[in-house]
Amino acid sequence: MNIVIIGGAGFLGQKLARALVARGRLNGQPVRRITLADVTDPVGIEGAVPVDTVQCDITDPASVARVITDETQVVYHLAAVVSSHAEEAFEEGMQINLHGTLNILERCRALGTAPLLIFTSSLAVYGGEVPDPITEVSLLNPQNSYGTQKAVGELLVNDYARKGYIDGRGVRLPTISIRPGKPNRAASSFMSSILREPLNGQGTNCPVDEDFRHYYLSPRKCVENLIRVAEISAGDLGGNRILQMPGRTLSIRQMIDAMTAVAGPEPARLISWQPEEAVRRIVGGWRFDIHADRALALGLEVDGSFEENVRAYIEDDRPGG
Amino acid sequence: MNIVIIGGAGFLGQKLARALVARGRLNGQPVRRITLADVTDPVGIEGAVPVDTVQCDITDPASVARVITDETQVVYHLAAVVSSHAEEAFEEGMQINLHGTLNILERCRALGTAPLLIFTSSLAVYGGEVPDPITEVSLLNPQNSYGTQKAVGELLVNDYARKGYIDGRGVRLPTISIRPGKPNRAASSFMSSILREPLNGQGTNCPVDEDFRHYYLSPRKCVENLIRVAEISAGDLGGNRILQMPGRTLSIRQMIDAMTAVAGPEPARLISWQPEEAVRRIVGGWRFDIHADRALALGLEVDGSFEENVRAYIEDDRPGG
């Protein structure tokens, strides 16, 4: 089984590749080769499975065609320009998030091999005057360009799957926390920073109030779920190939309390509380009362508690940990 | 006020143009010029307002740029490859319904004048395992490529409007019956043919059972609503610029009874009842329990009865009538 991970330089692509190497199998078949593709050359991974790294510009169909070939059985499409970035740079967001996704779908269609394609969508597809709770039959009413482009991707994945051009699946990821690495241009960046930086002994700012609630999943559980999504039988997915990946709804206060329970009182003292209006405007409309019953019934899983997320960060990702 | 109607050769574009000419005003301003643009040269219209006709290929950005200029205040985008056609000719559907719509949106954005853009969507955005009734907060879960492409158009119209690139509005049209002219490649074509052909003294076939229910509006009321949509103040639309245009849910039997009430018993005898599986497969999943409360509250209207639709056909459209 040859697996291509587009967005393979990102933290999720890297973790997914390491998990697939460690597992050695997907859908009952041995993993023969993993190709990490990204706009910047991804970091390679050592292990029992060969892992290639390759530069790929998904806005260029020829570049996509070099990466996804008739030997590709599985494509994970994780690449995106994130929320704040897509909001500031409208054309770039459209090129990468919409046309890039179309280029990947069109390449898969042209191959005629109906590869398994897993597309990552986002909570940003929700918003506006849609009643709580958000369920799998709620209107997608995105309030930013990133969410719009992800909702478009979902519709296209469903249609290409229905037509038999791909064995498509999409998952709306909860906000991943604690995400390793550095702050990025996602409006949700602080939802990891406020824990990660203090756990690393660094100061950070929380731009929202401590009662701000949102919907979270650990990177570890997210990767497990991304693998599970590939292994659900097509018949069990029915006529809608898009799932809400399950998460937990938590306030900032609950997250900080979990950090304190695991790591003691020092990290929380490194958080300052300066409101940031630009961030508040974007995340203030984000939905958190989200139900993922269908995904849970299909075997996707949620963290047992946010303490687990904090421990997973310390074990898996904390520098020098 | 300069108005461009893309899809201006279609029956709806033609009726809309005639209504705008007769009205002479839109949004409190005089209509100075109407441009009917279509892939085939539209039929011109005589009246007190100059009506230009022009060929336009919306898959070609340069062609779109020649039609939508900085003098264009209003764009009606009615052009589409219809449902059965888009299902058979996937690439053509994508080119016209998705990339064509993108080309129109991108042209409007490039102008910097934020023109008023009215986009026509379709009931085909609904489907699958979404509970009845369908409301304005139901998931769009299209079960064919046409519906997918229309749902994508809706999302983009909303986002371009939110960004201020257009004053965008979208309306999901009920199935228009009685549509004048000839059968087309829409799976819904028979929903007019079974009345139009008998009213014209010709035989026709009904491919579904007489208890098949669907959601209808007359061309006359549809045109009135398309004008009304342009005149709703942006503030009243709130964060979702897409409306379900109101219609009536009727069975085939109710429609035929209405025809008989208006035109006597002869027309109904011209209908044969041979099931057509290809049509049934597509329309069988179409939704009919549809609520359009928001549009009704904003002043859009529904026909008083289907008898009105039959009379409107006889008055407005029946050949030699």
UniProtKB/TrEMBL annotation, chains A, B:
InterPro entries: DenD (IPR050005), Epimerase_deHydtase (IPR001509), NAD(P)-bd_dom_sf (IPR036291). Gene3D superfamilies: NAD(P)-binding Rossmann-like Domain (3.40.50.720), UDP-galactose 4-epimerase, domain 1 (3.90.25.10). It is an enzyme of class 4 (lyase). Its EC number is 4.2.1.46. Residues 3-202 form the NAD-dependent epimerase/dehydratase domain. The keyword Signal does not apply. Keywords: Carbohydrate metabolism, Lyase, NADP. One of its GO terms (molecular function) is oxidoreductase activity. The keyword Lyase applies. It comes from the Bacteria. NCBIfam families: ErythonDh. This is dTDP-glucose 4,6-dehydratase. It comes from Roseovarius tolerans.
